Amino acid sequence: MNTALVLITLSAAGISSAQEASRLDGITPVTTDTLTNPSDGDWLHWRRTYDGWGYSPLEQINKENVANLGVAWTWSLTPGATETTPIVHDGVLFIHNNMDTIQAIDGASGDLLWQYVRDMPKSVIDSGTGTNGATKRNIAIYEDKIIVATTDVHIIALDAKTGKLVWDVQPADFNKGFRYSAGPVIADGVIVQGMTGCGNGQPGGCFISGHNPDTGEELWRLNTIARDDSWNGLPIEARYGASVWIAGTYDPATNTVFSGVGQPYPWIAEMSGLSPASTKEGVTNDALYTDSTLALDPETGELKWHHQHLKNDTWDLDYIYERILVDMPVDGKDRQLLVTAGKLGIVEVIDRNNGDWVWGVETVPQNVVSAIDPVTGEKTINPDAIPRIGETTVNCPADPGGRGWPATAYSPRTQNLYLPLAEFCSNTTPQPLDAGQIYTGGGRATFARIPVEGSDGNIGRIDAVNLADRSTSWSYRQRAPITSALLPTAGGLVFGGSWDRNFYAFDDETGDILWQIRTNNVVNAFPISYEVDGKQYVAVAVGRGSSQANTLASLTPEIQNPVAGSVLWVFALPDAK
């Protein structure tokens, strides 16, 4: 690589430095067809492909040789929470660092090719959002641009070859509490981006917006709090929440984006005005579209249908997470399915053409839902688990979730859905507003985490649920919480990591550990696999700061980790001699 020339360019929004390299010269435009049919060696989406599987078809690293896996290279990242997913195209790895440093790195050598450093406003720096709030779970690539949702609530496009700023738009105001914690999905040539931070007291809640990839111009906006009568008669300005803090999934065949939506705020229904249920005809306290799957048209933002997984969520048990698209027979009939699992850890399958319920399977211990109607999916809520002002209730699980933001994954090799899980409960105590106090944001509850009744001490768990017959293929349990997303591969492996700094390769059929390595910090991101010059690599970022991981860690106080030390680890097999 030619390292003789380093170019420095300044822009109003940041600093970009680029290094001449043949790897950058070889980058080709990422078209809609490229995104729909990515090369096996590329990782172009948050979960690699539009269907959200998080699965790598590469098999050079497999069950027979994974014991020989070693470190190919490492790269130090900006300190802070590191929940990032690298994307890889034509051998170049692009990665987001905490507080919006974006870097292009040679995927084979680990050499820096360019970097963009966001010039953050003082209000952003002073807010303290430089930890968990400044990490982005994904970025996107389209045509010749890297698309980033920034910590100061802009959407920007960088030139993929140089890192120079191409355009910069501001959909909302950081100083009013809005935030981005995930990046966009590119759907039919439109940037589709979800807004979060709407538990900070923004009247009317959050939204999803569509943007022109050439200019960033906003094309449409869909409110994620419904303007209907499902909020117990509350006026729009008294409705809060419905954040969209995980990227959506796209089905090119039906031109539909599927997105999850978070919970209402404040969490406790008695404080939010959603309890007790209204008896007025035509009014409910369901709180649409919170805890729902939304199916929308990426060209217009029109809502095609919705499915609400949990009505009037009073526990902070989001259903925001990834939507996985799978086609398979159900009761002898071919179905186009959408698979998701919220914080309750219940695997839920609906028809992705209309949102109709298909089936559900429970995983971790939970006491919120006492029954699910097998035909409609309607949930019966356990009244003893509903938090009430002046009382403390036991909820299983509590706010970090029986599964959190680390993503599940699907393997067509085994037809298994692989889920990172946690077994725990909490003593939940509402924090009511004082007389005359105005709500300005926050969940308004205290969660004192405790093990499940009769716990053997194991908090971390990975389940493999077979989507064809709804059985549990295997379940792995350990003391340390599982804190990373999972990565199944065609080599018969499932990669994932945990709070105790271990990164593992499991046998995808048995759950046996075939390889592991101790990293320098918490494995708390989304592992990927890619190929450069015929060689397969596995990459994962580590770094402490995630609120979900830190919360689960209170259950295992004997496991201590460094405060700093964010690093991208990249692994490969040794070269043949």
TrEMBL record:
Swiss-Prot/TrEMBL cofactor(s): pyrroloquinoline quinone
Transmembrane region(s): none
Pfam family, one: PQQ
GO molecular function: oxidoreductase activity
Annotated ranges, domain Pyrrolo-quinoline quinone repeat: 43-365, 477-538
Swiss-Prot/TrEMBL keywords: Oxidoreductase
Family, per entry: Belongs to the bacterial PQQ dehydrogenase family.
Protein name stated in the entry: Pyrrolo-quinoline quinone repeat domain-containing protein
Organism lineage string: Bacteria, Pseudomonadati, Pseudomonadota, Alphaproteobacteria, Hyphomicrobiales
